Amino acid sequence: MPSLKSLPIADGGAGSACDGRRPQAGASGDARPQWRSVEERNRPLAPEGEFPAGDPWTPTRREVVQLLSASAALATLSGCLKQPDEKILPYTRQPEEVLPGRPLHYATASMYDGLATGLLVTASEGHPTKVEGNPQHPSSLGSSGIFDQASILQLYDPQRAGVILNGGVPRSYRDFLAAQHDKALALRAKDGGAGLRFLLHPTSSPLLADLRDRIAKNFPAAKFQAFTALPDEEAQKGARLAFGQPFDTVYDFSRATVIASLGGDPLSAQPGNLRHMRTFADKRDPSKEMNRLYAVESTLTVTGMSADHRLRVKPSQMPSIAVALAARLSNRGGALAGLSGAAQRAKLDAQQQKFVDALAKDLSRAGSGAVVVPGHRQPPVVHALAHAINAALGSDAAAQQKSVLVDAETGYQGLRSLAEDIRAKKVDTLVVTAWNPVYTAPFDLNLREAFASVPNSIYRGLYLDETGTKSTWFLPATHPLEDWGDGRGHDGTTTFLQPLISPLFNGIAEAQVLAAFIGEGDRTPYALLRDFWRKRSPNDFDRMWDQWISAGLIKGSSPATAERPQVRGDAIAAAVAQERLDEVPGYELEIFADSKVWDGRFANNAWLQELPDPITKVTWDNAALISPATARELGVETHDLVDLGLRGPPVHASVYVLPGQADGVVSVAMGYGRTSATEQLASATGFDVAPLRRSDSPWSGRGLTVARTGRKRPLAITQEHWTLNGRELALETTKEKIEKHETEDIEKMREPMATIHTPWDYKPLTYKWGMGVDLGRCTGCSACMVACQSENNVPVVGRGNVAKSREMHWLRIDRYFEGELDNPSALPQPMFCQHCETAPCEYVCPVNATVHSDEGLNEMVYNRCIGTRYCSNNCPYKVRRFNFFNYTYDLGDVDKLRMNPDVTVRSRGVMEKCTYCVQRIERARIDTRVAGKGIHDGDLQTACQQACPAHALTFGNLNDPSSEVSRWHADGRHYFVLNDLGTRPRTAYLARVRNPNPELASR
Predict the structure, then answer these.
(1) Distance from C-alpha of 966 to C-alpha of 313, rounded to nearest angstrom
(2) In angstroms, rounded to a whole number, what is the distance separating the alpha carbons of residues 919 and 926?
(3) What percent of the chain shows pLDDT beyond 70?
(4) CA distance 977 to 941
(5) Which among 608, 724, 907, 963 has most CB atoms closer than 10 A?
(6) Residues 6+ apart with CB under 8 A from 381
(7) What does the pLDDT average to over 393-402?
(8) What are the CA-CA distances from residue 847 to residues 571, 622, 712, 840, 866 (Å)?
(9) CA distances from residue 615 to 184, 220, 260, 480, 933 in whole angstroms, order as listed
């Protein structure tokens, strides 16, 4: 990494977007090695792309007359609105805990593939409006992810299923119970229930485990299978190989000084990722001992962006990297002793060998402070080798515990067996609570056809999706915010779910579905849950129950970790000897879970669809990710349409040329190309990767064919919107430079510039609000973006408007590259209104709609705004958003329940932007005034700050020298973006500090 450098937008030279040539020097003779995309690096960007285009619609004379007539008619009716006929009643005996306009907070949890994450949900006037993390829960530590934040929108989705169907005909729940009672009696009498099968979602719930045990007693021949499209079966196989039995590995990055990620994404896409981000970021302070992160991966990930060193390899090369690393560390003894000669089989090139040698030395030096983290999609031998390396190093950052899931096997092997039994006519009744297996099943299983042949199939889902339309019985599911339940966190902490609202769409809980097979289907989920825990805690249960539900968890309930289980070196050596380590020429396929819609279950969530991908910044789509070198070889560029084939029908995919992608690898995200009957958003985006997947190799494949079609399908990408050519925006340096005080480039972006305006004087005032952003902690996960959208009623505009640069996000995360085209480093930077002291937007507004408050906020007065957009054109940070249309006009009554009542819903023709969550400031002002005290540090958090898992954002009073935001503003790394323009922003950024290995420092 070079010395301290800014990351401006590059001046591009002419040539192909993927020709690999470095940009030409600018007028000053300086090369510009930082850029945001391949196209920007190699091509000059047109200045007319600076601002969103106006509406190109040109109406005919007839259309103008029609509009004038309609507007006149509406004007005559505007004063004749009729109040509802029904009588509305206020509280006459108001509950003491309910105060009008004052929200309440409840502890609950979200469940993803069986693991619980503790949440605190805000309820306004009896319905949930905002989700936050539970500070007491070890899996969230008070933060939240994008799926947690967006769950509010899913709760109120009017396209959710609300009717029980039997063969497409509406039925009642009593009809369902009666029908299953008769069938269950017949199955038990016949052969003990051998024809009864359950395909369930993975769970850690003690209640659901108990119900399964009771079903098994009634139907001893029945079979249970857990399934998720994103199983950890490779990890479990690796644990069995290493230890002889399945274990979960719990990582603690607070104990790690050197971290090596092998084909995974522990900061984003693995269990416990919220906690991992916090503990990892806590050790990125250059004033203390910093950790060092290595990432080995095929496509750039959130973890890869945060890495100090990154090696790109094909999926087939990952076992070779793991074997070479284990062999290099064989002198540590233990299970690695028998692998010293295995390095000869691992064929690495010079760059890979240099990387592995440096990594091995660093791991060995760190000893117990080192940890190797394998990705869940990696083959079992990689997991086993990682366990062996961690054991040999005596790692304190990796501990084994018994699996918290009820089923150790949750993947495709069990699904394949079920499909075979269905075809063999061995299944009479199939109960499915796993999410949409017809869609997520690999192509070779042909589960769609098999599922339709089951005589009595029962499916519970939030939507009438691909599996629901093939089922005999379809049951609408409860949302987690409507349900009672229990589960365990990634570390095993017992966690509780409680409903914030009664089921909006007649949803049925999973516990009720299972209870129907033991004759208790008519009981409520609350009764089932409470009775179960009463039997486990008979003493003083009522008091304990209230404590558990109030806190959302049982404190101290995580199981003890195993006493460093013995690693079976002989078994691992035998597996390595059988592993195929040769490199096969040709293209390879890599499939991964999409960062926004996951395996497709969130594909109908507009907030997530419009959220730019952390790496590519693509919205409303997935794409075929290829490297610049592969793009040159194929003769394609971003937006070109290609056909991908792998032992099946071809898939049509748009290309995205991604710097840092491994050569010869095509990476695609699953979760798109849905054909759901009711999920309109899900069915209109992207392509389905199912034809490329096989049950024996669901995540990668060799022999992929890639063919040009000669056509294009443009992607909606936000990365190059609002171009600021040559500006100094994001800064990074190294720990060595910080220690040597070589920070001149930071210091020149810190001093206030001369201005003709009289500076504001805040000394007589109590509060001077400001914000800080630590680029060293930010991972680019985007939780802050969804939190801001949820908190501030930010609308969704759709794919077409995003392509026109009309997205409405108040907060965006820009992603910058630095270095060589094929293998750069990457840096995310959150950007929002800087609340400038001398704000350019304020001086050009003709109606004084944007003004400066006494406490330093750049405020918007929506009722004054007439939509000239002068402020947006004059904003150098490009953070203002204009309502080209009335995006909330057609919201239904249920949709409106998600709106934050403390924030104005804006209309067409109005400008909007970040307000520093002024509604939270006013709420804190009221609360502290009632308490007879001022607002102290920590009493107030903005929505983005509260959600951030890495604690990369802070907000507070700059007049308080002891506040965290004041400390960040005084930090030696702080600077102000575009400080040379004299805007005097109130938001300070801390430059990212990397901690490179001196042996790899040139990288």
Answers:
(1) 43
(2) 11
(3) 89
(4) 22
(5) 608
(6) 238, 241, 319, 322, 323, 572, 575, 576, 579
(7) 86
(8) 76, 43, 44, 15, 8
(9) 50, 49, 20, 29, 44
567 band by pLDDT with thresholds 50, 70 and 90? confident
What is the distance between the alpha carbons of residues 315 and 169, in angstroms, rounded to a whole number? Answer: 47
Concatenated DSSP letters for 625-654?
A: EE-HHHHHHHT--TTEEEEEESSSS-EEEE
Give yes or no for residue 670 having a pLDDT over 80.
Answer: yes
Please state the pTM of the whole predicted model.
0.88
Q: Residue 298's Cα: distance from chain center in Å?
A: 19
CA distances, 503 to each of 483, 484, 486, 552 (Å): 8, 11, 18, 20
Q: In the numeric block, which tokens belong to residue 190?
A: 């016949």
List, in order, residues 6 or more apart from 234 with CB less than 8 Å away: 376, 377, 378, 379, 380, 383, 411
Q: What three-state secondary structure class fits 104?
A: strand
How far apart are the C-alpha atoms of 251 and 807, rounded to whole Å?
A: 38
Average pLDDT rounded to a whole number, residues 759-764: 72
| Identity of residue 217 | K
Is 407 in contact with 226 (CB distance < 8 Å)? yes
End-to-end CA distance of the chain: 6
Three-state secondary-structure class, residue 283: coil
CA dist 253 and 258 (Å) reads 9
pLDDT mean over 637-658: 92
pLDDT grade for 71, boundaries at 50, 70 and 90: very low
Query: Could you tell me the strand order of the sheet in which 223-226 lies?
Result: 169-171, 164-166, 473-476, 456-461, 429-432, 196-200, 223-226
CA distances from 453 to 165, 229, 457 (A): 17, 22, 9
Q: In this structure, are residues 369 and 390 in contact, taking their beta carbons and an 8 Å threshold?
A: no
Bridge-partner residues for 116, per DSSP?
111
Beta bridge partners of 5: 732
Three-state DSSP at 5 gives strand
Q: How much of the chain, in percent, has pLDDT values that exceed 90?
A: 52
Assess contact for 841 and 848: CB atoms under 8 A: no
The rounded distance, in Å, linking the Cα atoms of 482 and 499 is 4
Cα–Cα–Cα angle for 657, 661, 666, rounded to 5 degrees: 75
Q: What integer pLDDT is reported at residue 40 of this predicted model? A: 62
CB 22 within 8 A of CB 33: yes
Q: How far is CA 949 from CA 489, 779, 811, in A?
A: 16, 9, 16
Round to whole Å and give the CA distance between 184 and 541: 34
Question: According to DSSP H, which parts of 902-958 are helical?
Answer: 918-931, 943-947
Q: Could you tell me what percentage of the chain is helix, strand and coil, using 3-state DSSP and rounding each to the nearest 5?
A: 30, 20, 50
Averaged over 419-428, what is the pLDDT? 90
Nearest to 717 by CA among 788, 674, 673, 655: 655
Span 182-230, pLDDT tens digits: 888 887 777 878 889 999 999 999 999 999 999 999 899 889 999 998 8
Written as six digits, the tokens of 240 are 């069995």
Domains and their CATH numbers in the chain: 164-227+407-551 (3.40.50.740), 248-401 (3.40.228.10), 586-717 (2.40.40.20), 726-999 (3.30.70.20)
Q: Any residues with CB less than 8 A from the CB of 586 and at least 6 apart, and which?
A: 664, 702, 703, 704
User: In angstroms, rounded to a whole number, what is the distance separating the alpha carbons of residues 883 and 753?
Assistant: 33
Predicted confidence at residue 818, as pLDDT, reads: 87
Q: Strand, coil or helix: what is 236?
A: helix
Question: Which of 49-58, 126-135, 405-414 has the weakest average pLDDT?
Answer: 49-58
The confidence band for 658, taking pLDDT boundaries of 50, 70 and 90, is: very high
